Amino acid sequence: MNLGASNDSPSRRQVVLFLVLSFAFAWVIAGAFSLLGGRWNTPAAVPVGVVVMFTPLAATLIVQKLIRRRPLRELGLSFRLNWWWLAAWLGPPAAAFATIGVSLLLPVVEYAPGMEGMFERFATMMSPEQMAAMKDSIPNLPAHPIWLTLGQALVAGLTVNALAGFGEEVGWRGFLYRGLAPLGFWRSSLLTGFIWGIWHAPLILQGHNYPDHPVAGVAMMTAWCVLLGPPFAFIRARTGSVIAASVFHGVLNASAGIALMVVRGGSDLIVGLTGLAGFIVLAAVNLALVFTVRRGRPLKDAPVPG
């Protein structure tokens, strides 16, 4: 089936141009940061990561507005609410807590309510003074940090994180979603996930998500994004909105740390949402989607029936 078969869908060439621009912008920015001596997992990397998240938006604006001369609203810029928005908001934290449960089933992982495992992971990123200050502040908190993190994630996922997530989602679940729609739900969402994962490669090689295994992390991140592709596409299809996908993305980023807060042991390839434990949770989600999405159903902007 040809891509861009309808008049309002991107053509094959336009899809390729969007991908070239998205990758070029992101990889040049990430590469420049590294060549200038920047180090990932430091405060200086935060604004760089945010800018990189907006590169798919930049590519979308060029192709959709300047070349296709089509409105952005056709990419799913809708705030029309339904119950699937709630799934976009609460689904990522549920996955994070499920990942904790799966992690504790692994022989190399143990329950650590005192967050000893988290402190060990931060040891290489913080000074001894900063580490001591963080430990000393915990007894004065009104609740366990995991619950405070959950609350912050739910708020940030609807606001600042959703805005950053929109920078990516208007490209992946907006422009590319429409461009690959004729392939059907599974092929288009899995292919989008693969592309999305490879797009992260320069950041992963610098230590993002897999600081102890940056090379193997590229393959892990790609596999993780492939597993995330169908849930993201499902939320996009059920809500008819790329904004809902942005909320999903924003809460996912904000709540990912929950999966690491009370477990100890295992490497960054094993624990956490981006590790083996998270893969198992996402595989279960995809299995549930197999029984929900009709095989081969094309993606649409309107919510799809069950």
Secondary structure elements and pairings:
Layout: H1 12-35, H2 45-53, H3 55-67, H4 84-104, E1 110-111, H5 116-122, H6 128-137, H7 145-156, H8 160-180, H9 185-199, H10 201-205, H11 214-239, H12 242-255, H13 258-261, E2 263-264, H14 276-290
Antiparallel strand pairs: 1-2
Helix pairs in contact: 1-2, 1-3, 1-8, 3-8, 4-12, 4-14, 7-12, 8-9, 8-12, 9-11, 11-12, 11-14
How would you portray this structure in words?
With 306 residues, the chain is mainly α. The two termini are 24 Å apart. The longest helix has 26 residues, at 214-239. It has helices spanning 12-35, 45-53, 55-67, 84-104, 116-122, 128-137, 145-156, 160-180, 185-199, 201-205, 214-239, 242-255, 258-261, 276-290, and strands at 110-111, 263-264. The protein has one domain (12-290). It is 64% helix and 1% strand. Strands 1-2 form a two-stranded antiparallel ribbon. The chain is built from 14 helices and two strands. Mean pLDDT is 90; it is low at 1-6 and 302-306. Helix 3 (55-67) packs across helix 8 and helix 9 (185-199) packs across helix 11 (214-239). Keywords: Hydrolase, Membrane, Metalloprotease, Protease, Transmembrane, Transmembrane helix. The chain crosses the membrane at residues 15-38, 44-63, 83-109, 179-199, 215-235, 242-263, 269-291. Residues 153-254 form the CAAX prenyl protease 2/Lysostaphin resistance protein A-like domain. InterPro entries: MmRce1-like, Rce1/LyrA-like_dom. One of its GO terms (biological process) is CAAX-box protein maturation.
